[in-house]
Design brief:
CATH class: Mainly Beta
CATH topology: Jelly Rolls
Distance between the termini: 13 Å
Radius of gyration: 14 Å
Number of helices: 1
CATH architecture: Sandwich
Number of domains: 1
Number of strands: 8
Length: 134
């Protein structure tokens, strides 16, 4: 999804590409997240970030994981539906003339087709749930 604003922030390997999915219950403890650096993240400051996948459905339409970004600013167009729980940090999201501030404990809903600008003030971590039926 390169070149798609915040859509470019999604570079996760799908679980089906890296391991066979099972019906076993898993627990991923705080220190056990396998963070991978973001490849060419969007932004004006060139800051970095990382993400880690926690689950992908067999058909690839449903995906969860953690995402982390350092302070930066970029425009986005959401190419999928996403619900995210902000775990740490703070950011402003500007869309349609409104500015929404998100902080730890907030739930952010960005439907497919939504557009705007991320302005990360303090390194942010979110747990995301993505639904992308295509």
């Amino acid at each position: 999804m390169p070149g798609q604003g915040a859509g470019a922030e999604r570079t996760l390997l799908r679980m089906s590409d890296t391991q066979e999915q099972t019906t076993e219950i898993r627990v991923i403890h705080e220190g056990e997240r396998a963070w991978a650096d973001l490849v060419d993240p969007p932004g004006t400051l060139g800051t970095g970030g990382a993400e880690t996948e926690t689950f992908t459905s067999r058909d690839g339409a449903f995906q969860t994981g953690f995402w982390r970004r350092e302070p930066d600013t970029w425009s986005f167009e959401r190419l999928y539906d996403e619900v995210a729980l902000i775990v740490a940090g703070e950011a402003d999201i500007e869309t349609n003339g409104q500015v929404f501030t998100v902080r730890a404990g907030d739930l952010l809903v960005t439907p497919k087709g939504s557009t705007g600008t991320w302005r990360i003030k303090e390194t942010i971590v979110k747990f995301f749930v993505i639904y992308d039926r295509g």
